[in-house]
Amino acid sequence: MSRDTTSDDADRPTTTLAFVCVQNAGRSQMATAFAERERARRGRGDVAILTGGTDPADHVHSEVVDAMADLGVDVSDRTPREVTFEELRDADYVVTMGCAAEDVCPAGWAGENRDWALDDPDGRPQSEVAAIRDDIEARVAALFDELDRGD
Questions:
Q1: Range of the domain at 42
Q2: pLDDT per residue over 19-50, tens digit each?
Q3: Cβ-proximal residues to 21 (8 Å cutoff; 6+ apart), any chain
Q4: Are 22 and 57 in contact (CB under 8 A)?
Q5: How far is residue 28 from each of residues 5, 11, 83, measured CA to CA in Å?
Q6: Whole-angstrom Cα distance, residue 47 to residue 37?
Q7: Angle at 63 between CA 127 and CA 123, to 5 degrees
Q8: CA 125 vs CA 57, 61, 121, 130: distances in Å
Q9: pTM, whole model, 2 decimals?
């Protein structure tokens, strides 16, 4: 699916990735940070990234901030936000994190929906949060590999 082209990468149509979960305070924040990093590393200015939650928390979970800091990624200044159906309607990929997102039913999404079925890191020991983080990092890299191949 294609969108408007950007000045960064005029040869490719813009692809929109949306990372959604209930609180937007853990998994979707990690996925977004990794996607932003992949976009920069791969020179993919044609990729737009959106994140949000159906019932956002007040702040990113401290366990997530610490786990991401261990990799040199700072998410401490991020604020969970609500995502709307209107924002997701035209996304090429809507990735849910293994949590309910009934408020933004995927039946009306134009793109592909994927559920990564990830455990919630909130309140978990740091070793478990790190394992969830590493899984998300690998999944985001694989998604960008697909984009690079044109899958």
A1: 15-142
A2: 999 999 999 999 999 999 999 999 999 999 99
A3: 27, 28, 53, 54, 96, 97, 98, 99, 101
A4: no
A5: 26, 29, 12
A6: 11
A7: 80
A8: 20, 12, 8, 9
A9: 0.87
Tell me: pLDDT of 99 over 80.
Answer: no
In whole angstroms, what is the distance from residue 150 CA to residue 135 CA? 23
Assigned domain for 150 exists: no
Q: How many domains does the chain have?
A: 1
Residue 9 lies in a domain: no
| Among the listed residues 128, 96, 116, the one whose alpha carbon sits nearest the alpha carbon of residue 23 | 96
Q: Residue 109: which pLDDT band, with cuts at 50, 70 and 90?
A: low
